[in-house]
Design goal:
Layout lengths: L19 H4 L16 H10 L1 E4 L3 E7 L6 E4 L9 H18 L7 E7 L9 H25 L43
Parallel strand pairs: 3-4
Antiparallel strand pairs: 1-2, 2-4
Helix pairs in contact: 3-4
Length: 192
C-alpha cells in the first residue's frame, strides 16, 4: 500500500509540541529561548542583586523578572570541570533538570545555577533535580523576605527652627595685620 502525504504543514492545534504558547508551559518537553538567560548583564544582575541558596551540589541565585516566566542560566567555572567536554556535560544535565522540573519551580524568577561539585565528580541526576527544586524555593523565599524587609529610608531629622538657637556673639573686626614672622626657616623667606 502506498501512503499519500499532504503538502500542508501539520496543524499546531493537533500537535501540542509545535504550539509556541504551549512551549512556555512547564513540562512541555522543551527548553525554549524565552526560558533562558542569555545576556551577561542578566547573569550579573541576578548574581549581584538576587538572593542565593546552596547545598553541597549547587548554588542557586534567584531574582524576580518582569516576564513572569521562570528562566535559567547556568554558569560552570573551570574549577568545577577539567575541560570543556565536562563543563558542557554539566550544563546539559542542569538544563535537563530544569526542563523536567519546571512545573515544580517558583514562577517568575530568573535562576542562575552554579554546580559546586569537584572536577570529575558527577552526582546522581535525581539528586541534582531535587536540589534544584529545593534551592530554587529557598532562594525565592529569601527574595520575598528581602523585598518585604525593604522599606523606604526614613527621612532625615529636620533641624529645629533658627529661633531655638541663641544668637552668636558678634565677631571682632578684622584688622589688616602683617603675616606672622617665620621662625628662621630659610625656605619660607621670600615666598609669598
Amino acid at each position: 500500500m502506498s501512503e499519500t502525504r499532504s503538502s500542508e504543514p501539520p496543524s499546531t492545534s493537533s500537535n501540542p509540541q509545535m504550539s509556541e504558547n504551549r512551549s512556555l508551559e512547564p513540562g512541555a518537553g522543551r527548553y525554549p529561548r524565552a526560558a533562558r538567560i542569555t545576556r551577561k548583564a542578566d547573569f550579573d544582575r541576578v548574581l549581584r542583586e538576587g538572593a542565593a541558596a546552596r547545598d553541597p551540589l549547587l548554588k542557586v541565585a534567584a531574582l524576580p523578572n518582569e516576564a513572569g516566566v521562570t528562566r535559567l542560566g547556568v554558569a560552570v567555572s573551570r574549577k568545577a570541570a577539567r575541560g570543556s567536554v565536562e563543563r558542557n556535560r554539566l550544563k546539559r544535565r542542569l538544563r535537563e533538570a530544569f526542563r523536567l522540573e519546571r512545573g515544580r519551580l517558583p514562577p517568575g524568577l530568573d535562576l542562575v545555577v552554579i554546580p559546586l561539585t569537584a572536577p570529575g565528580e558527577e552526582p546522581p541526576f535525581p539528586a541534582v533535580r531535587e536540589s534544584l527544586v529545593r534551592l530554587a524555593h529557598k532562594a525565592a523565599e529569601r527574595v520575598r523576605a528581602r523585598a518585604g524587609a525593604a522599606r523606604p529610608a526614613p527621612a532625615p531629622p529636620s533641624l529645629p527652627p533658627s529661633s531655638a538657637f541663641p544668637p552668636l556673639p558678634p565677631s571682632p573686626p578684622l584688622s589688616p595685620s602683617p603675616p606672622p614672622a617665620c621662625d628662621g626657616d630659610p625656605r619660607e623667606e621670600g615666598v609669598p
